[in-house]
Amino acid sequence: MRLTFLGNFRVDYTSETHHALSLEALGHTVIRLQESEASAAEILDTALQSEVFVWVHTHGWTTPGIDRVLYELKRRDIPTVTYHLDLWHGLQRQRDMRRDPYWKIGHFFTADRLMAEWLSDNTAVRGHYLPAAVFDQECVPAVPGDRFDVAFVGSRQYHPEWPYRQQLISWLQDTYGDRFRHYGGGSPRGIVRGAALNQVYADARVIVGDSLCLQFAYPDYWSDRVYETLGRGGFLIHPRVPGMYRTFTDRKHLVFYDFGRFDQLAELVDYYLDRADEREQIRQAGHDLVRTHHTYLDRWATILEVLGR
């Protein structure tokens, strides 16, 4: 199958790059077009020579005439599709959903179940719930080296609707001191990617995760960092997001704690720091689950199957 893919390919770590490589690994031909650089005429001409048009949009970027492209492709029965990992509902950017041409796409695969249902019920877009995943080529755990106790990977400054992130990082810093390392925006250690990120997950005995969960009750949406952490080989303690238990089993693939229960989190961190064998068994099971069932190879196989129905 030939697919035209509009997205951000300027760097090698974007989800678009991983999606395109996964599609190629599945045997398809992918024509990459850089969003905000390719013109509508170029996009339409290329997409008309393809069987599917994929667009993964960077919020704030514009392509004049893209709405006309979507209209013409629909008229010619060429499927238009996106697979987006971010949350929109309940955040400031939700207001853009009515006016951004992105929301005129034919099939919207999203890691947010409620948004998938809302799109199908309230718009002409067909919403599909499809959780995030990890790039299969990065599911290669590193050999532990400079071991330390606790890590958090992610930006300190996050959506204003989610102050919990800053509270969590501050608590980890206050509780574990120099036994804790923060990697991400707003941290002295900065952002790590690629093999360096795999090394962090190998060196940290415990990774504490986070997912934006409005009112601690928003169901069936969790961060792609869950799959990144497990797939790259980390042992993860993560907040109990409603619905997450259907994919991951507590104390088998990862360990859950209740949002805001820092006393509970401390007990779990200390418990697993003292039990290396039990920690390793969970880490390995989580890695095996993600590597075999939750990569972008799996997700794009599902997307193409749905489009072919």
What is this structure's SSE topology?
Layout: E1 2-7, H1 15-25, E2 29-34, H2 40-47, E3 52-55, H3 66-75, E4 80-84, E5 107-110, H4 113-122, E6 126-129, E7 148-153, H5 164-176, E8 180-183, H6 194-203, E9 204-208, H7 225-232, E10 236-239, E11 255-257, H8 262-273, H9 276-293, H10 296-307
Parallel strand pairs: 1-2, 1-3, 3-4, 4-5, 5-6, 7-8, 7-9, 9-10, 10-11
Fold and architecture overview:
- This protein folds into two domains: 2-133 and 295-307, Rossmann fold; 137-293, Glycogen Phosphorylase B (Rossmann fold, 3-Layer(aba) Sandwich), CATH 3.40.50.2000.
- It has helices spanning 15-25, 40-47, 66-75, 113-122, 164-176, 194-203, 225-232, 262-273, 276-293, 296-307; strands spanning 2-7, 29-34, 52-55, 80-84, 107-110, 126-129, 148-153, 180-183, 204-208, 236-239, 255-257.
- It starts with a strand and ends with a helix.
- It is of the alpha/beta class and 309 residues long.
- The chain has ten helices and eleven strands.
- The longest helix has 18 residues, at 276-293.
- It is globular, with a radius of gyration of 20 Å.
- The strands form two sheets. A six-stranded parallel β-sheet has the order 2-1-3-4-5-6, sandwiched between helices. Strands 8-7-9-10-11 form a five-stranded parallel β-sheet, sandwiched between helices.
- Helix 5 links the parallel strand 7 and strand 8 (180-183).
- Helix 1 (15-25) crosses helix 10 (296-307) and helix 2 runs parallel beside helix 3 (66-75).
